[in-house]
Design brief:
Blueprint (H helix, E strand, L loop, with lengths): L1 E6 L4 E5 L2 E3 L1 E4 L3 E4 L8 E5 L2 H21 L20 H7 L21
Antiparallel strand pairs: 1-5, 2-3, 2-6, 4-5
Length: 117
């Protein structure tokens, strides 16, 4: 018995003298193959299709993130729709309103000692 210290996940393929060998699970997780005592040319392969697909997905994700991280376009390169101004609230109107001049005091006439009001 050839016992691999790898999980029995179905990606392993073994052949002996060109004929496929059936794998089995040992101890609930490890991959094993029965090899006869007479021996022969044993070949063990692992299918990498899923790994290659996963690496491709990760590469695309890195390219997308890098593209999104690039600085934006020049100003004026794209037409920008102007936003309508929102009406100001009471507080903003109060702050922006020009300050009214304080009411002027009535002109005082000088009073002399002999004048009576």
């Amino acid at each position: 018995t050839l016992l691999l210290a790898e999980p029995a996940d179905g990606g392993w393929r073994a052949s002996l003298d060109g004929g496929d060998l059936a794998g089995r699970r040992v101890d609930g997780w490890a991959q094993a193959y029965e090899i006869p005592a007479s021996g022969g040319f044993f070949e063990l392969r692992r299918s990498m299709t899923l790994r290659h697909a996963w690496v491709l997905v990760q590469g695309v994700a890195v390219v997308v993130v890098a593209a999104l991280a690039l600085p934006g376009s020049r100003s004026g390169a794209l037409p920008v729709r102007s936003r309508a101004r929102r009406p100001l609230g009471r507080r903003a109107r109060r702050v922006q309103a020009p300050a009214a001049e304080p009411p002027s005091a009535p002109a005082e006439t000088p009073v002399t000692a002999g004048d009576r009001p």
